[in-house]
């Protein structure tokens, strides 16, 4: 079906709905000129300039463009040969280097990092595969039973769960492969004069991940919707289509949980172990090849900061879209398919916007000196947000009817909405995300007062550094929470809970750019590690450190975006859960919303607030246990091979032993916290009923947001305070590297590692996963004694 959408004016019928009119079309110069004929309820429009388009064309076109652009960026990176003398126009890995020993060392380090990351992800994803297999059967059985043995809904939900989980695995694995492939090439590029080549290499590595993940995610989601539409062709049946699709979000988020927790434990166990023994005890530099844990540390950057984060943000996209589709499924009855899939269209438009803005960093305003690096990354976020505003308005005007109906989440009424209202909700989310990102930068960048104060606090030791850092994290939560509150109030007032879901989509509308910047950081970090281990010239490490410092700040900004979007996504999923229970109970339950003063609801509200703290405690302790093993192993090697600490050691450390410790510890420790998050809402719903689940979800959301923001920002601030001290000269007040002030900063950074890279980011998934799991099993919960649960309290 092809819609003829008029750019200049609209045809309106007696119900004030945009209509499709019969036209006599003349194709001229690539444009379609249409003369609209008046019908008996239509206004005479006259001559219009029209374009032929559908939502499917835009969505699938954007997905294809995103994946094609990712391939192009990868090919540009692949042109850079791994050759220590620098970069030539020739292609290939290694050929004819003037410094063959250094080149061999580069390839050796690159291969070790690649093999370590590959072996860990293979082991992790094997566990995930068994989980997918078992849990898909659980979903099929429970959904079928909860829908009075509707096997089609059970099967479709299981299939979408499997597709979401596999797409998440593919996203994480792809990110790891690209990051490992690119980090050594960033090191080689840093040997060249100037900043443009090395920055562009790392930036393009991020772009491969960002655009491939967005394109793949949108493609898989939309094709799944079109397949389900064959079974549910009528607008009245699309509510079942969207309910089956929620399995896609659950699959993505489940794998993200294991990826974030497992990868986070791996990377921080190695990082903490390497820092404590290497820098604090023996005073050797970061990433020094004499440190046995240094390869494991660099492997961890790829499996935690890249693969885990890719799965996390894919999960956010999938869940936000599923929540918006469930809440907006009633729009299909009045506005048609294109109107119902508007949330997917927004994400598709985001790919076009992010692609255009990427030229600013690489070509229009390239990086020429060190101070340009941070501004280039920040301009990406600001420019994409600004450009999304007119792009979303245009999409809303084209694909939404002049008026459309939406079923209220609270009460039994119907809202009549217009395109500008939906557009405003998306814009509020996008602008709110940018504000939260910039506030996060203020609290975590050493360009501003908070981190410089934190660095000064190290003058009196590690204890004052810890006190200042924790206080900074708590303080940094104030403005983001107020922004979130304003976005929720504004979007809910305008478009009910559907508006909150659209605001979450707005937060993630420039996801391709957000992922680009997030992956950029770990690639630069690895590039610096490789430069240190390969013993390249000091200026190479200085250059990669400058790139990495900007990456640390933008990574913190990315985490701010992720936390804000997760809060809105989980609230939207909660609204979708309430809607499904209302539909299942025929308005017998939650007809007037959720009453928090109901005893069972309030009791589980408090329990829900405890869940994030229990989760953070489990993951923090897991890092501590694994780090202790790592410290003992590194110290054992230093004791047994004392010549390792010589300036020019004659012995080589056993890197594989440290990799094995991180792998074993992370795979073992990721299961308990993941199981707690998955089974808590499931068992609560089955045994205590839907009132208990509603309290659990709200309590978990409120506590997770505050804790995630404070932990992530404390960790980011400690990291950059350490880097700020390292940049200082020995004659300055901060004394620079190797001083007691620096050692105090390293302790803070070590504590901050699991804050910002394990527990903090994984709390995003806690609130999202609990909410989406409750949404998927909503019918099952209601089928258990009419929503009262087994115990019928």
TrEMBL record:
The keyword Membrane applies. InterPro entries: PPase-energised_H-pump. Its main location: membrane. Keywords: Ion transport, Magnesium, Membrane, Translocase, Transmembrane, Transmembrane helix, Transport. It is a multi-pass membrane protein. It comes from the Eukaryota. The chain crosses the membrane at residues 58-78, 127-145, 151-175, 205-232, 238-258, 339-361, 381-400, 420-440, 466-490, 497-517, 561-579, 600-620, 676-703. GO terms for molecular function: diphosphate hydrolysis-driven proton transmembrane transporter activity; inorganic diphosphate phosphatase activity. It is found in: Endomembrane system. The keyword Aminoacyl-tRNA synthetase does not apply. One of its GO terms (cellular component) is endomembrane system. It is an enzyme of class 7 (translocase). Its EC number is 7.1.3.1. HAMAP family: PPase_energized_pump. This is H(+)-exporting diphosphatase.
């Amino acid at each position: 079906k092809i819609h003829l959408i008029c750019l200049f004016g609209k045809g309106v019928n007696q119900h004030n709905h945009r209509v499709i009119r019969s036209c006599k079309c003349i194709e001229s110069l690539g444009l379609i000129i249409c003369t609209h004929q008046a019908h008996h309820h239509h206004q005479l429009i006259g001559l219009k300039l029209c374009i032929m388009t559908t939502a499917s064309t835009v969505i699938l076109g954007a997905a294809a463009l995103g994946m094609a652009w990712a391939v192009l960026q990868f090919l540009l990176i692949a042109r850079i040969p791994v050759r220590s003398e620098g970069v030539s126009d020739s292609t290939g890995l290694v050929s004819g280097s003037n410094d063959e020993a250094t080149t061999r060392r580069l390839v050796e380090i690159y291969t070790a990092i690649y093999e370590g990351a590959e072996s860990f992800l293979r082991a992790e994803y094997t566990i995930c595969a068994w989980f997918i297999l078992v849990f898909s059967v659980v979903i099929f059985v429970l959904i079928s039973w909860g829908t009075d043995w509707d096997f089609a809904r059970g099967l479709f939900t299981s299939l979408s769960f499997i597709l979401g989980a596999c797409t998440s695995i593919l996203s994480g694995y792809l990110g790891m492969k690209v990051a490992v492939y690119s980090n050594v090439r960033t090191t080689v590029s840093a040997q060249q004069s100037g900043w443009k080549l090395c920055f562009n290499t790392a930036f393009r590595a991020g772009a491969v991940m960002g655009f491939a993940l967005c394109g793949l995610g949108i493609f898989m989601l939309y094709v799944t919707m079109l397949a389900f539409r064959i079974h549910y062709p009528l607008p009245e049946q699309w509510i079942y289509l969207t309910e089956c699709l929620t399995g896609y979000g659950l699959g993505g988020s489940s794998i993200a949980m294991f990826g974030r927790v497992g990868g986070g434990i791996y990377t921080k166990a190695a990082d903490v172990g390497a820092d404590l023994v290497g820098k604090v005890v023996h005073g050797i530099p970061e990433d020094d090849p004499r440190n046995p844990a240094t390869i494991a540390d660099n492997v961890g950057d790829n499996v935690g900061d890249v693969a885990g984060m890719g799965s996390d943000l894919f999960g956010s996209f999938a869940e936000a879209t599923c929540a918006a589709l469930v809440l907006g499924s009633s729009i299909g009855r009045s506005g048609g398919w294109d109107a119902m899939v508007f949330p997917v269209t927004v994400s598709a438009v985001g790919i076009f916007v992010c692609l255009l803005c990427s030229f600013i960093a690489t070509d229009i305003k390239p990086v020429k000196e060190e101070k340009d690096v941070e501004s280039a990354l920040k301009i990406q976020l600001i420019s994409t947000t600004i450009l999304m505003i007119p792009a979303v308005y245009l999409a809303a005007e084209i694909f939404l009817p002049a008026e459309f109906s939406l079923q209220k989440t609270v009460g039994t009424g119907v809202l009549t909405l217009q395109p500008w209202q939906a557009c405003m909700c998306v814009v509020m989310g996008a602008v709110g995300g940018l504000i939260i990102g910039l506030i996060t930068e203020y609290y975590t960048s050493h360009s501003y007062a908070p981190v410089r104060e934190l660095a000064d606090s190290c003058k009196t030791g590690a204890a004052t550094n810890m006190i200042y850092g924790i206080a900074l994290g708590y303080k940094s939560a104030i403005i983001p929470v107020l922004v979130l509150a304003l976005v929720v109030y504004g979007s809910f007032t305008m478009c009910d809970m559907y508006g909150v879901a659209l605001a979450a989509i707005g937060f993630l509308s420039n996801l391709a750019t957000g992922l680009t910047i997030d992956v950029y950081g770990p690639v630069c970090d690895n590039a610096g590690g490789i430069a240190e281990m390969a013993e390249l010239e000091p200026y190479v490490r200085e250059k990669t450190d400058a790139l990495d410092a900007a990456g640390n700040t933008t990574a913190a900004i990315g985490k701010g975006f992720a936390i804000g979007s997760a809060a809105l996504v989980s609230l939207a999923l909660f609204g979708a859960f309430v809607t499904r229970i209302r539909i299942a109970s025929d308005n017998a339950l939650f007809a007037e919303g959720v009453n928090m003063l109901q005893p069972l609801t309030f009791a589980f509200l408090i329990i829900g607030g405890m869940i994030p703290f229990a989760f953070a405690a489990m993951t923090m302790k897991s890092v501590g246990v694994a780090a202790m093993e790592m410290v003992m192993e590194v110290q054992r090697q230093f004791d047994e091979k004392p010549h390792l600490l010589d300036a020019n050691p004659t012995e080589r450390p056993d890197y594989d032993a440290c990799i094995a410790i991180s792998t074993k510890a992370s795979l073992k420790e990721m299961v308990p916290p993941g199981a707690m998050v998955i089974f808590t809402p499931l068992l609560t719903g089955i045994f205590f009923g839907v009132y208990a689940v509603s309290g659990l979800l709200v309590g978990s959301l409120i506590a997770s947001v505050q804790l995630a923001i404070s932990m992530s920002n404390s960790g980011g601030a400690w990291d950059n305070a350490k880097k700020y001290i390292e940049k200082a000269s020995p004659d300055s007040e901060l004394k620079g590297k190797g001083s007691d002030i620096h050692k105090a900063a390293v302790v803070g950074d070590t504590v901050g590692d699991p804050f910002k890279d394990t527990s903090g980011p994984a709390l995003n998934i806690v609130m999202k996963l609990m909410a989406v799991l409750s949404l998927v099993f909503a019918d099952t919960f209601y089928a258990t004694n009419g929503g009262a649960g087994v115990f019928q309290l």
